[in-house]
Amino acid sequence: MRSTFKVLFYLKRSKGKEQPTVPVMGRITVNGSIAQFSAKLSVPEHLWEVSGGRAKGKSVESDRINRHLDNIRAQINKHYQEICDRDSFVSAEKVKNAYLGFGDKYRMLLEAFEKFTSDYQKRIGIDRCSGTWKRYCKSIDHLRVFMQKEYRVSDMPLAELEQSFIEQFHVYLKSDRGLKPMTVSGYLKCLKYVVKIAFNNGWMPRNPFALYNYTAPNPERSFLTEEELHRMMTTRLRYKRQDYNRDLFLFSCFTGICYADMSALTYDQLEQDTNGDWWISGNRQKTETKYVVKLLPYPLFILDKYRGMAGDRYLFKMSTLDSIDDSLKNIARECGINKQLSFHLARHTYATTICLQNGVSLETLSKMLGHKHITTTQIYAKVTHPMIDREVSMLKEKLQDKFAI
After folding, report:
1. Do 182 and 92 fall within a single domain?
2. Over the stretch 261-320, which tens digit does the pLDDT of each residue have?
3. Rounded to an integer, what distance in angstroms lies between the CA atom of residue 188 and that of residue 165?
4. Shared-domain flag, residues 264 and 373
5. Does one domain contain both 88 and 115?
6. Which residue has the higher pLDDT, 66 or 389?
7. Exposure of 389 by Cβ count < 10 A (0-12 exposed, 13-18 middle, 19+ buried)?
8. How deeply is 341 buried, as exposed, middle or buried, from its count of CB atoms within 10 A (0-12, 13-18, 19+)?
């Protein structure tokens, strides 16, 4: 029995939007199965004849549009005939894939995304951190909803992606989901990275996102001042759990070690030099970059206070990051600190209040924080009033004899 086969074209209108031109979509139907694709063409709506699925009239523009559509139809007919002659089974999806040039390397966007994320999960705790993996998982969730809403498809071939896709996804995250710029930037980077890998693997003929760049505005990085840090250290708290979370936060304030790396700290990472000073070194889970920190008296005090509490191997037994961050909000209120505390703010405090304000160079700080590039360290480098005062005072002393009045 011969297959029932049909190709038609229609306009993809956007509800509530005025469009000077409307994208043309194609629909292949084979025995009731349907596959849709973009005709890579936009036409003025007044030129379109709905019943015929083509441009009306005999203008130059209408003739150009119809020749483009006739060419697509002829190619699809050719592929349909070849599949019928070669295979015992033909479907709309197979015909569309043949028209789009897919062979054995045919891949879908979410399929590739999920494969990457699954492989990433296996590396958590080895050279990858769980926070980044969760961001990729969340990116998949947003992509799935976005494609269903905007394109009415459950997945999309990688070879069909255009730069407009990531631009529309950007608008969706920002407007429909109401996400903050830094969050939007993180999800867009996840999408760009997966598509880049797909292109490098030969799963698509080009990388449509290669020239797309979006950099979220850098928000002001908050940190504790010396006065706030002292208040955090000396305020008496009501609960032991708060006291413990406060000490974990302060350990990070005086070492710059982030939550993920603190959770994995072991006694093997502690070393004592010939002068009797203690050091902590390791590789950051996020970047695999080595960090080295010389322990100041206060973190040594915290280590002694909780020695053995987490067993013989690990230095600390830490709750989830969300749990500690919630606890820090209550601790801030009790300490009279009018700032939105989070565990990562401790890293900013170490960089700014502990190190830079006391003369530590950016190069040295970058090594201690485990940054790959010093430009990353500069984000933490807050130019505070004490720093300006110290530098200008030094400048004043150097110039007073040269430019005396």
Report:
1. no
2. 999 999 999 999 999 999 999 888 777 788 999 999 999 999 999 999 888 999 999 999
3. 11
4. yes
5. no
6. 66
7. exposed
8. buried
Which domain does 136 fall in, by range? 109-200
368 against 86, higher pLDDT: 368
In a domain, 62, yes or no: yes
pLDDT at position 104: 44
Q: 138, 187 in Cβ contact below 8 A?
A: yes
Sheet holding 22-30, edge to edge: 5-11, 22-30, 33-43
Calculate mean pLDDT across residues 171-197.
Answer: 93
User: Are 251 and 299 spatial neighbours (Cβ–Cβ below 8 Å)?
Assistant: yes
Answer yes or no: do 291 and 153 share one domain.
no
Q: Alpha-carbon distance 127 to 345, whole Å?
A: 24
Report, as an integer, the average pLDDT of 59-64. 92
| Same domain? 123 vs 82 | no
pLDDT digits (tens, 9 = 90+) for 22-61: 999 999 999 888 999 998 889 998 999 998 899 998 899 9
- Beta-ladder partners of 278: 272
Q: Locate all alpha helices (DSSP H) within 122-257, ordered by sequence.
A: 130-150, 163-171, 181-200, 226-234, 240-253
Say if 214 falls within a structural domain.
no
The residue among 77, 100, 123 that closes a domain is: 100
Q: In what order do the strands lie in the sheet with 270-272?
A: 270-272, 278-283, 290-294
Residue 218 has pLDDT above 80, yes or no: no
| CATH number of domain containing 286 | 1.10.443.10
Give the residue-averaged pLDDT of 87-109.
Answer: 74
Asked whether the predicted pLDDT for residue 372 surpasses 90, the reply is no
Q: Is 240 exposed, middle or buried (0-12, 13-18, 19+ CB in 10 A)?
A: exposed
Number of domain units in the chain: 3
Of 196, 120, 116, nearest to 161 (Cα)? 196
Adjacent-strand bridge partners of 30: 5, 33
Interatomic CA distance for residues 306 and 318, integer angstroms? 12
